[in-house]
Write a structure and sequence with these properties.
Chain B: It catalyses: oxaloacetate + acetyl-CoA + ADP + phosphate = citrate + ATP + CoA. Chain B: Keywords: Acyltransferase, ATP-binding, Ligase, Nucleotide-binding, Transferase. Chain B: Residues 9-209 form the ATP-grasp domain. The complex is a heterodimer of chains A (300) and B (366). Chain A contains ten helices and 14 strands. Chain A has 300 residues and is of the alpha/beta class. Chain A has a seven-stranded mixed sheet, sandwiched between helices. Chain A has a seven-stranded mixed sheet with strand order 9-8-11-10-12-13-14, sandwiched between helices. In chain A, α3 runs parallel beside α4 and α8 (220-229) runs parallel beside α9 (269-278). In chain B, strands 7, 8, 9, 10, 11 and 12 form a six-stranded antiparallel sheet that branches. In chain B, strands 13-15-14-16-17-18 form a six-stranded mixed sheet, with helices on both faces. In chain B, strands 1-6-2-3 form a four-stranded antiparallel sheet. The longest helix of chain B is centred in the middle third of the chain and has 17 residues, at 156-172. The chains are: A alpha/beta (300), B alpha+beta (366). At the A-B interface, α4, α6 and α8 of A face α6, α7 and β16 of B.
Chain lengths: 300, 366
Amino acid sequence: MSILVDKKTRVLIQGITGHEGARACREMLSYGTRVLAGVTPGKGGRKIEGVPVYDGIREAILRHPGINTSLIAVPALFVRDAAAEAIKNKISLINILTEHVTVRDSAWIVARSRSRGVRVVGPSSVGIISPGKGKVGSIGSSAVEKKIFSPGPVGIISKSGGMTAEIGVLLTRAGIGQSTAVGIGGDQIIGSDFADLLTLFERDPATQAVVLFGEVGGSYEEEAARLISQRKFTKPVVAIIAGYFTKDIAPATVLGHAGAIVSRGRGGYYSKVLALKKAGVHVASTLEDIPKIIKSILRL
Amino acid sequence: MNLYEYEGKKLFSRYGIAIPRSVLWRKGNEPRRQWMKNPVVLKAQILAGERKKTGGILFASGAADVARRSRALFRKIVAGEAVKNILVEERVLSAHEWYVSFSYDTARRAPVLALSPRGGTGIAHAHTTAIDLSSGVEDFLFRDAIRSAGFQREDIFPLLGVVKKLWSIFWNESALLAEINPLFRLSSGELVAGDAKIIFDDEKVSPGARRFIALGGDIAILASGGGASLLSIDALVRVGGRPANYTEYSGNPPASVVRALTKKVLSQKGLRGCWVVGGTANFTDIYETLSGFVAGLREVRPRPRYPIVIRRDGPRQREAFRTLERVREDEGYQLYFSGSETSLSESARAMVEHSYRNTGVRRARK
């Protein structure tokens, strides 16, 4: 099995006529994922890669009632509206690929989706892939796909898109496949955090262990540690936390991802590593250690 | 983007939050105001916090005293920042100092109102209330928060006024932080903002800006991907490398963006190496980005003779590496490149070895 994405995934792409939307469409189709429709207001009636485009979601769903997932690839300014439209139309999984969404809009989307029981992954999410079953978003380009992800027992949750692939490569090369890999995005406010997805992985019988890629800033890693300490997640976890070097940097400096803010005493490198270690998580200091630790845990 | 206190207070004024009578004093441009005969506070306009502790806030009274103390303050470096502007403010004799702010809490993934009848203690000791954006933001929610934070009954309405205005600033201006610390409560019951700390969301102010932070070392860094960039610098630091800067391009940037960034990064002084590093790209066109790097490299003067280590993988990597090979052969740059078969740590080690070879610099233990 897997989480979030499987063979039953039926995708709608909001912003399908844009550069990112069209590329993601090609990538998903070439992976065998069913993309039923696209939406770009004012551009309905045409086709992108053979996928019909509509002016609104209501119209798309009337024609394609099987849609259960939306990929949002519209420009940052329109993301809040696109998410509101998808939530209103009761699409149960929304994956937001767009980067540079304001914290204000993200917070609004999180509140709205929670109150309506809709799951959001992102913004700034590279996507979700359940190897061999399907994928949503830009994760694992078809050019290099075979080297990156393979089916197997390890889940990946990562704040970084690039590192989702990098960890996939290392595991695959070591002969360890993945159940589902999820890029949750590195923004300050995100739809699904480590703890949310660990909860799903806990219930997934195919997942035997999970790898987390975290970063300095915010409290999502600490939340994951708390969930694990409370025994709400009971499978082995390997984590790597980026930003060791920031221990010497001035507070309130924003690094790579918008959420990677160096702040005084909170969300720092050691705070996260200590919380995770205390919860019994294996903390790797380099990426190459991850497959070794997984192998020893799962006795592969 | 962080605002200076005087900019934040201008914003407060615009939204109807009371501020003390004040005038901005730019270096060499002495203001004269009748009210400056009264006791005043001289406040260095710098971005660092805790100015009282670091000597950025002085008290003065009378023209001569004000002139003398402000001259001293203008000569100072406070918390690493030169003082270019001083906010001269009439001293407020307050009965109480309170704390009010709006910010985002990642644990609750929502905006939070933080309130405390004891100012100066900061958000750590304040009472916090999450704002539920799925329902309307109503006055009664703020009133409940005010009571829960321990304020007196007679303060509910005056404070509600300030909280509502601060919320408007926070929400309308896409701020990440809107803080009044302290909020003075005068004996008349009037509320006056003693300080202003506003941070705007960079995505609103300058969407997609590339971040560049000087780190003081001698290995120039061009990293791609927010996560890869942090982890790469970690790997470099762990093997004894000294990063000159932090910078990162993410997404799928056109060659021109990488070219400009390359020129900026390689124009730093005293470099001993350059590390172009990233993970396995999902969709970034490696040929496009490395073409941008080569274009930038060719424009850097003096011509870089230090080693350049490239570690990158993803779509069109082979084409990119064929070009790099030609550039190495034809133009004589010291280029080393590899894909994901070389780990980040191995690449970091190679960078350090090439850069610090024969220089007598002792490398840190692995």
